[in-house]
Amino acid sequence: MLRSLSDGNFIIKLKEGEETILGRNLLTRVRDMRCSRKHVSVKLNNKFGICELTHTGRFKGKVCGKPVHNGESRWLFHGDTVELLTGKHIFQFQRLNPVIAEQAYLKNLEYGSWQQYDSVLIYNLQSVPGNSMIAAFDLFGSIVHGTSGNTYQRDMNAWTISYDEVIPTLKKHVEEGYKIVIFTNQSGFSKKQLLIDDFKKKIVAINRFLCVPFQCFAATANDWYQKPRPGMWELFCRMGNAGVEVDKDKSFFVGTAAGRIEEGNVLADYSSTDRLFALNCGLKFWSSAQHYYGHPDPDYQVSIFRPRTVFNRNMQHLMFPMDTPLPVADKPEIIVLCGFPAAGKTFYAKRHLEPLGVKIISWEDDNLTLEQCLSLVEETLRNDRAVVVDATNPNEDSRKPFIDLANDFNCPIRCFLFEATQEQALHNYIYRKIKNPECSRPHSLIDFHKKILVRPSVEEGFHSIVYFTFVPEFDDPADETMYKYYMIGK
């Protein structure tokens, strides 16, 4: 019920699930012309012991002393006050027994529903409507943390609250009109380290402990939905917020993986995933210590590779020396490509060399043996044509067979070195994997390449080394937009 605190001691009874209109009408006994006839609507949810309020009037009111404007929604808990106009026409939401109300909330957590969209698990509560103001959190580290010491917490009870201020802070956000949404990476499912049913039970147990309504999105695979990629946030905005547009200026994300560097007794963060997720989504970011205790943000380091910066490079300077002639199809020559997996070698060869009539042999991608590759190169040279060996060719041993073959045919051999960094190569790999999930080569090949890499030199027998700076090219603007997001958090 709603009890009047300013216009006489009377009550307004609320019925489960029915909309009650408060405003300039007989029900509220308000005659103030600044108060609309339909100033506020309220709807009781007995299952959770709360009331949903939506402000529809022209002039602002207040809920628990905080302003509420036209179109905004708030949750009312037992004892919360509503001012139809600032300082006027005050009502208090009351349950006959607040203890029973909390018990009802806990009992009816079973009404929370789970659904799966692609690789994302989504937890919804009936008492969490759409909202323009989103208080988003990472789960482990920002709200709870594990107690078993394992990376993947199998025991649904192996967790505890991360900070003493978590519960009061979350409840304060709800009172201020925020919707609480959790975004968490749970790659343990795909690695068979976690069971989905155990995770679901854990989320319900956490909700039971917090006694704060929230929505949860869990990315279960290393795909577009995994942080720091913005897929989960896009999914939430598209289908998880009841059609309400998010006000990013009034929303924020809190996470523990903030990229903070080691300083004094403070250990470095294991990654910058959460900070980059907020950056990708266009949200303000706070570390957990900042948000709960107001600590200053220490020095931090985000991804070494910044994908937007590659588009600022001068296209005239992508090849050095800049006056390097490209191979001519009918002049025998071997071009050996060298660089990380996903450094852009195949892309460049297909787009810029193959149209010249040059033979491209991608023997690693085509699962050929070295002997088969050498046979194809030899055949091409016998036909008086130029050939490109498209492979990583990371060290002298891998490049020597082609140098020897060039000497046998007395033809020139050059090395085209693609200087994408390890971080950029990993970014490219993940982008390629998202665009083509059938891509089967593991990204661990990038780490392996780093270990065995020996930069090529003319002393090996090359006539020259040509250096390439990778700049992606796109036919579809949507693909370019996707590429510009941060893909890796470490």
UniProtKB/TrEMBL annotation:
Ranges where the PNK FHA domain occurs: 2-60
GO cellular component, one term: nucleus
GO MF annotations, alphabetized: ATP-dependent polydeoxyribonucleotide 5'-hydroxyl-kinase activity; double-stranded DNA binding; polynucleotide 3'-phosphatase activity
SUPFAM superfamilies tied to this protein: HAD-like, P-loop containing nucleoside triphosphate hydrolases, SMAD/FHA domain
Cell compartments where the protein resides: Nucleus
Broad class of the protein's primary localization: nucleus
Highest taxon of the lineage: Eukaryota
InterPro entries named in the record: FHA_2, HAD-like_sf, HAD-SF_hydro_IIIA, HAD_sf, P-loop_NTPase, PNK3P, Polynucleotide_phosphatase, SMAD_FHA_dom_sf
Keywords from the named record: DNA damage, DNA repair, Hydrolase, Kinase, Nucleus, Transferase
GO terms classed as biological process: DNA repair
Alphabetical list of Pfam families matching this protein: AAA_33 (PF13671), FHA_2 (PF17913), PNK3P (PF08645)
NCBIfam families, per the entry: DNA-3'-Pase (TIGR01664), HAD-SF-IIIA (TIGR01662)
PANTHER family (alphabetical): BIFUNCTIONAL POLYNUCLEOTIDE PHOSPHATASE/KINASE, BIFUNCTIONAL POLYNUCLEOTIDE PHOSPHATASE_KINASE
Entry protein name: Bifunctional polynucleotide phosphatase/kinase
Gene source species: Trichinella murrelli
Gene that produces this protein: Pnkp
